[in-house]
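Human:
If only I could read backbone structure tokens as easily as an amino acid sequence. I am handing you a single protein, as its sequence and its fold in token form. I hope you can help me see how the letters and the tokens relate. Thank you; the sequence and its tokens follow:
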Amino acid sequence: MAAFRKFLPLFDRVLVERLTAETVTKGGIMLPEKSQGKVLQATVVAVGPGSKGHVQPVSVKVGEKVLLPEYGGTKVVLDDKDYFLFRDGDILGKYAE
């Protein structure tokens, strides 16, 4: 069973896994860690039921690729793997497939 299946976000929270940073350029040049920059793209792995009060569903679904803000989110470590927890309203957008 996957680690994130053991963790259920509450309310309008979204659990994401950041995509890995590119370590090699298209030309084949290896990039040092410091110059890679922060990855702002992630894949949604779990979503909460929606905000409390009147339940407003979360705007993303599991498996969608989303754009994250540069700062924010709460780091969650599940089975030695890093995930991040964001509020639905903090996610900047999603990529159309």
